[in-house]
Amino acid sequence: MAIHKNSAAHKVREYRKLNPQATAETVAKDLGIKPSIVHSTKHRDKKFGTPKRKYTKRAKTFVLNPQQVMAMQKVPEGKWTPVAVVSSNTPFDPALPITMEEPKADMVNHPPHYKVGGIEVIDFIKAKLTPEEFRGYLKGNVLKYTSRAGHKDDAGQDIGKLVWYATKLQEAQTT
Fold it and tell me: Which of 97, 138, 139, 159 has its CA 20 to 30 A from that of 59?
């Protein structure tokens, strides 16, 4: 049986490590779970001992809300506020800036609305057309973005797409 860090029993055990004198009702209230879970975890640990297995690796982690973190740490209210809990499968790169802003979508190279369904539309089109038809499709888009640059919405974005399709066409000519 694997033990997961985001289980209610694990939260109860971690809370009790920090606050051994806390009552089951206090633990349940601070963690937002039923008191019966706290009681059953305490009983199971008393009868069988605390599980000794290592936690399984998971990409996702349990995220506590700020009130739960404050309750677990017993930090006086208003002294600090957690900003974020982050989980990733990639190593942390301290050179990258940490911001609270959402990264802007790349509307030229990989627009998010072209990835609905798990595959980019350009890859789907390439798979369904012959190489000659695909080159014709790319040429048509080069012409489209050349003719409309500066006449609709963002000219810079149209020119970016023109370059993107021209690059794809150049790649398709060599393969």
Answer: 97
Within 10 Å of residue 38's Cβ, how many Cβ atoms?
A: 25
In terms of pTM, does the model score above 0.70? no
* Residue-level pLDDT at 1: 46
Instruction: Please report the DSSP string for 18-70 in residue order.
Output: H-TT--HHHHHHHHTS-HHHHHHHHHHHHHH-S--SPBPP-S------HHHHH
Q: With H, G, I as helix, E, B as strand and everything else as coil, classify residue 3.
A: strand
Q: What percent of the chain has pLDDT over 70?
A: 66
The residue among 142 and 57 whose pLDDT is bigger is 142
- CA Rg, the chain, in Å? 27
Residue 127's CB is within 10 A of a number of other CB atoms, namely: 9
